[in-house]
Amino acid sequence: MRMSRGQRYLAGKLNTAMNQFRLNPYAKTIQAVKAQHAEAWSEQELKSRSARLRQQAQGGAALSGLLVEAAALAAEAVWRVQGIRLRDTQLAAGMAMADGQIAEMQTGEGKTLAAVLPLYLRALAGRGAQVWTFNDYLARRDAAVMGPVFDYLGLVTGCIQEEQSWAERRQAYLADITYLTAHQAGFDYLKDSLVLDMGELLQRPFHFVLVDEADSILIDEARIPLVLAGAAEVSRSGCAEMARLAASLRLNQDYRQDEHGRNVYLTDAGIEQAEARLGCANLYDSGNQEQLARLHHALHAQALLHRDLDYIVREGQVLLIDEFTGRIADKRQWPDGLQAAVEAKEGLNIQGGGMVRSSITLQHLLSLYPHFCGMTATARASAEELLNTYGLRVAIIPPYKPCVRIDEAHLVFMHKEAKLNAVVKEIAAQHRTGRPVLVGTASVEESEHVAARLQSMDITCQVLNAQQDAREAELILGAGKLDAVTVSTNMAGRGVDILLGGGDPAKHQAVCALGGLLVIGTSLHESSRVDQQLRGRAGRQGDPGASRYMISLDDETLQRYGIGAELPEAYHGLRQVEPLESAAIRRLITHIQRVAEGQNVEIKKTLNKYSDLIEQQRRIMLSKRTSVLKGTVKTELLSRVDQELYGRLCSVYGEATVLAAERQLLLAKTDHCWSAYMDHMFAVREAIHLESVGNKNPLDVYNEQAIEAFAKLEEQVQRAVLEAFAGVSLEQPHLSFSPEALSVPSATWTYMIDDSFLASRVNLF
């Protein structure tokens, strides 16, 4: 329902009043900033003031006492370099972030400029400030745009990119302000935990990070651990056979899925068929555990993972699709057994596996920073989770201009065919007027289906999905032009503003006259916050715009959460093409989405319980390793355990050489043993669902095994060091060991945690 002129006027007045109320905490500080009259300062004075602030901060002065002058300097630098005056709302957002909060600012309100103040203030201390962006493109873009502002203030800006050399990355980390993705920060941190010399360290101690797109990185990415993996052989035997067996099994006869489609398990009939095909008497005997695990992976791949929805196949490789963005998930895999099962299902060569060397979640990585904050356009829906998980409060910053976007009620259809027909019809009708349309779909398959329908009607459209991820920024920039039709999976292109008319003032007015950008969503996500992200692409900076979701009752999310069982009898078998006019069904859909959101929060809590103990153990091992690396503790292992061998080695090579070798071996063997431990615990987590058969709490079993295995680690490290020394030949001219003894991982990727076994058992915890 469209608002009348009078309603829009009242909404604007109310918005203005709310703006003033929300800005009150920072109103006096903003006035104090303006009272500095920085516009009257000469360039030399401005730069000398910045140098003096830096000296004060590095001398131990409280940053809160420097805030007003720092804000005046930052705002004036933006004006002199960029020609943009920071608005009160941007200053308020910057101050909220300087206070350690998440600033929620609507799309187009200038978050990148608002970030200048907290970054500048924290960088003054000389210990580095980082910005975590959503992808490499945004890191590169923001560093290039904002670098001159920081340079004007006497600070150095760096940027981390995937293809950079060690020297380039090291230089970027030493900069005052460094732009990079959270994954890059995590990978480099894990690599640093494996160096054999202090001079090989990339990063300096963490100090401050500002998380851009904070909800996506801290909520959506929370259950994806960063994994450092080294090359290892994966067993290829039986993968193809298991894929054929899984494909022959029948749903609801040989196997069943849980009510939300996250887990799959064999029935008695399926067990009998599998045992007959595999030639084993009892599939659940301990001796058949490996076969059972491979079969479970194959069945999971066959029943629960779908091509062009969960992954695509490109150049003979399985590439995962990020469920929240529709993009290719860079360097992400499933755990090796499941990855191999999907490759076998698709008839591909099984790729070489990877042995887990170390791992950390983004939640634990963030906890290593003494100071952090964030910004995003959609945080309030997750405010409670952000506070409980990270201790981050959400500061809602009102828009500079009232948002006049019209968010229309969902149109609900009985089936997908009716929905897609209506979507295409609506796009065609809007396109005839020249109004730009952005369509958000749930999958690659659906986006290409919509695009094909449009092209058959001679409607030119741009398709932005996981198949064309490299061009996403270029494509999304044009989505607001006259006649533009853009079909996108979920939120691909996030972080790039859609300018009405493509930035041309005359065309901007023309698009405004047509009602602005129309956003159409074709499927609801499990999180209403992600749906709101799509709506937020329209209505930038007070521009007109509209959004509407056109969904069907057989969409995957609604089916997964059992809407069929909840529908009134009158709707069973109904195939009408018109949208349903039922408030009760809309309420049911809202309820289902809330249930899904609640379950996902519980799943993340459960997964965190599995990673918390491992993270504590990792920090214990890293602390011991760092002491050896820095030489702050004397090892003296060989002299204490085998004095005779120690004496012989010292007489041939010298005591200093032997002690240096012992130090190197301790570092390498610590890494090897920790790697074996991590690989073991990943395997335990994959198979832990079987423990529920014995009415045991899987988490308790997992923790018991982790504690027991960890207790043996130090002894294993020492034994490995002594064995390496015992194998040394005194005939060789120099004390040296095999390359394998001192090797470090050479490959990295992220694993998608396989939570399917855990999700249906959340109630156990």
Question: What's the SSE blueprint?
Answer:
Elements: H1 5-34, H2 43-58, H3 67-82, H4 88-98, E1 102-104, H5 111-114, H6 116-123, E2 129-133, H7 136-152, E3 157-159, H8 166-174, E4 177-181, H9 182-192, E5 208-212, H10 214-220, E6 226-232, H11 239-248, E7 255-257, E8 264-266, H12 268-278, H13 289-304, E9 311-314, E10 317-320, E11 332-333, H14 336-345, E12 353-360, H15 362-366, E13 371-376, H16 383-390, E14 394-396, E15 406-407, E16 411-413, H17 416-433, E17 437-441, H18 444-456, E18 462-464, H19 472-477, E19 485-489, H20 505-513, E20 517-521, H21 528-535, E21 545-552, H22 556-560, H23 563-566, H24 583-630, H25 637-641, H26 643-653, H27 655-687, H28 698-711, H29 713-726, E22 747-751, H30 756-759
Strand order of the largest sheet: 3-4-2-5-13-1-14
Query: How much beta, percentage-wise?
Result: 5-15%
What kind of sheet is the major sheet?
7 strands, parallel
Rg calculated over all Cα atoms: 29 Å
Low-confidence stretches: 754-765
Query: Which bin fits the share of residues in helices?
Result: 40-55%
Annotation field: number of helices = 30
Alpha-beta classification: alpha/beta
Q: How far is it from the N-terminal to the C-terminal residue, by CA?
A: 45 Å
Shape: flat
What is the β-strand count?
22
**Overall pLDDT score:** 86
